[in-house]
Amino acid sequence: KTTGECLCKDNHYRPEGENTCHPCGCYNIGSLSRACDPITGQCLCKGGVIGRQCNRCDNPFAEITPAGCEVVYDGCPKAFDAGIWWPKTKFGLPAARDCPEGSIGTAIRHCSDEKGWLSPELFNCTTATFSHLKKLNEDLHRNSSRMSSEHSKAIVRLLHSVTNNNPHFYGNDVKTAAQLLNYVLKYESQQSGFNLSAMKDAEFNENLVRAGSAILDPDTKEHWDQIQRSEGGTANLLRYFENYANTLAQNVRKTYLKPFTIVTENMILTVDYLDVSNPEKATLPRFQDIQETYPKELASSIHFPVFNLQTHVLKETTPFPLTQTNPPMEEEHTVSDRKRRHLEPAAPLPVAVVIVYKSLGQLLPERYDPDRRSLRLPNRPVINTAIVSATVHSEGPPLPPLLDPPITLEYTLLETEERTKPVCVFWDHTVTSGGVGGWSSKGCEVLNRNNSHISCQCNHMTSFAVL
């Protein structure tokens, strides 16, 4: 040709809109030729044989032979699934095979006499790029005291690197990444000042949040469900992120850390000074200031009221108590107080750390406060918003446990159809006997709602959502 258009080699195809040629990969026993359709890649199959590569039979109890598909009566046929050829296997027995190309470990598939082949179990496969992390995790599991700031920085750097370039995770990848994140968050939450890894590595928090976002993707739900049958899973990760947010809030001022916001596909982390005298600045995250594009499902925020933070300011700037014993002196004191208040800089602004999780609500175990007086469960309980997690550190006296006035949470609803009687909830790590916690509505109530948004008020600070 003289048009400059590229063509694929024989036995290759190029999907529409792509600029890469892929091998046809026709299964020689099931196909009539090695060539395939130049756009779809569909091979020419023998009778009864299906699949793009002609490697499956339309009857689940049949296997491919040179004559086409033939039914196997005493077990499950040789079959191709999940990138693996499974051998002919007797009913009631499992087959074990190496994990698919690009991963390590053993995949299992059971042959049922009622249903034939069950779905392949690839949970224990580990993507090859995760193998170093898997070894690191096993080492820490044997001796967690080996955790250090250097380890911490290296782990999140590596986690971000392998999760960033990986479109698909196996169960073991998610489990390994989650356990390593737990080690890092636990270690960092015990540090202070310039010992925090975020003070030594400018990309630490970004690597941390990006790795967290990757393994909290909705696509990992099946893996988390399996992990959570035997361990805390996402509830533990949430608790460790909450603890780390607390540590960050307490150390922002003493380490001169500048406010920042990290935006990812499934998480937003924002650290900022809280100026409650300005309503715009009292809402976090400040979506109007975010330059990057972010999923609309993350557009949920928390509004902090002009509450006891203001009284702290007054408490801190009142130099001595007023006494009734000497009226003229009292007046002098009051005047000097006013002057002093006027001259002294205002008390330092509190620091807020807010994390928004897009899909964590769907990944957390379905556990609820057993006390029905404090939680009215809908018929089909579903978390229908992002989770907003908040912590505030005030340099003055600590905030009271019950906030008055309360904080306000503004959520974008994920599903707008068939959603009646919403309940404002928070994840209470202390309820339920399993030790991982559950959803409770104590101290929270619906403020107002429309078809796409809902507002809640809560008198404490933790991780919130809407059922």
From TrEMBL:
Subcellular location field: Membrane
GO biological process, one term: adenylate cyclase-activating G protein-coupled receptor signaling pathway
Residues covered by the Laminin EGF-like domain: 24-71
UniProt cross-references to PROSITE patterns, sorted A to Z: EGF_LAM_1, EGF_LAM_2, G_PROTEIN_RECEP_F2_3, GAIN_B
Domain GAIN-B as annotated: residue spans: 305-467
InterPro entries xref list: Adhesion_GPCR, AGRL2-4_GAIN_subdom_A, GAIN_B, GAIN_dom_sf, GPCR_2_extracell_dom_sf, GPCR_2_extracellular_dom, GPS, LE_dom
PANTHER family: IG-LIKE DOMAIN-CONTAINING PROTEIN
Protein known as: Cadherin EGF LAG seven-pass G-type receptor 1a
Organism: Nothobranchius kuhntae (Beira killifish)
Primary gene name: CELSR1A
